[in-house]
Each structure stands twice: as C-alpha cells, then as structure tokens.
Amino acid sequence: MTVRVGLIQTRTPASHVASLAQMEPLVRDAAGQGAQLILTPEGCNILQKDRVKLLPQLTPLKDDPVVQGLQALARELNVWIDVGSALVKREDGKAANRQALIDPMGKIVATYDKLHMFDVDLPPRDGKKGETARESAVYEPGERAVTAQTPFGKLGLSICYDMRFPALYRALALDGAKMMMVPAAFTRPTGEAHWEILLRARAIETGSFVLAAAQGGFHEDGRGTWGRSIAIGPWGEVIGKLDHDEPGVLIADLDLAAADKARAAIPALKNARAFVGP
Description:
This protein is α/β, with parallel strands linked by helices and 278 residues long. Helix content is 27%, strand content 29%. It is built from seven helices and 16 strands.
C-alpha cells in the first residue's frame, strides 16, 4: 500500500488568526497535490514565548480557532490532518502541548500530550547569548504514549524533543505503528547539529517511516527555529526534505510494505532482551 503525505512547514505567528491564515493555503496546496495525510508542525496554532501574553489566549482544544479551521479543511478536502501540536488549555486549567489527529469527517479521533519537556540552557554561539527554554514552566507533560489507527495503518504520535528518547519509539513500534509523527519547533543550534541524525536513527531503530514537519525561521515572538522538514524511510533513507526554513510543503510517497521489509531484515524489535542494569 502506498500513501501520499504532505508535511507543512510554517513560521507560526503570535496570534491564532494569523496562524490559520498562513497555514490554510499550505494545507490546500498539499491536498491539491494528492496528499491523503497532512502533518503540521508543533505549536502550529500560536507561538509566543512570553507566557503572560500566551496563557490568556489559550483555549480548550475543541474551542481553538486554528484546530477548528483545520477540522473544517479536513472535511472540505476529504483528508486526514495531524495537527502536529496545538498549545491549548487542559481540562484542569493548565496548559498542554497537544497533538490531535483529525479524520476526513472533521472529527478528532486521537490526542497526545507531549511527554518530554525541553528544559535547557544552550551555550553561547557565534558570539551571541545561548537560548534558554523551560517548557515545564508553562506546560504539563503527558503521561502516556499514543498510537492512532488510520486506513493507512497505525501512526505513532510524538512531538519534537520526544525524538531524543528512543524508548518511546520502540513502544510505539511494538504497538504496531509504522509511521512516526515528529512535528517540531526545533531550535537552530540543536537543529543544525542533531535534527536529521536523530530522526534517521529513530527510523532505523524501529524500521519505521519518520515524518517531521517543522517550524522554520525567525518568528514574531523572537525565537528562531530550524525548519528543514523531512520524510525518512524505514531503512534510514531520506525520501524528501526541504533544505530551508521558509514556509512550504513537502510531498512524499510512502510504500508501507518497506517497513515490514526493514523489520524482517533487521529484527531488532524482536531480538531485544530484558536485562539487569549495572
């Protein structure tokens, strides 16, 4: 079975209205090129580093205007849309970095809250002060891994920093996922050093397709993101990528039988053994 996917690369602004206005033509472009499954980046509804400005704008997932807009597009275009993540208000009033899979009827059929929080102080680079991130100061981490069934097979849901934790992808693969969703808003220093290497490693380890739609460029709120959205096959090969940080669309055709072939050739999922630590 072959599925055509569309990866949307954005430079999300600091308001919902502007974010949807930027993303809608890109989604239409992907659908117009025949994409059956469309993935958006992390934080595709709004990006604002200032929590005082951000938090009052967050709503529950079902009320988020960008999510609602993507639901309407899924219905109109008859496509699956994986909202890579939306920054939303949880049921308990806390904030969440939440992925949402929308079916062609516009229904949200699965959600996943980012498990791993990016709390880091990056070193200075090129004479400039290093970036600081404290996701845990704003967002409540999730507690469970999530796979989602589609007509194309199971998707494994993850978000950005999760890619540094191989055990998550092994768990998703063991549950039957052959396509790993890795939407991101990767920082520029770590993106340049690690982005493609980590994603190819996750594909090879699990014999899975890895689809990473990314934020790119310098944003309204002052952050810089790496871009370079990429689709990787289960042998670790790059199927397609954007070699820039501008908004755009990446189309890739996935032969899903390649995942079974890779897992048969390198049966690492079956061969792993429990062990006692040192």
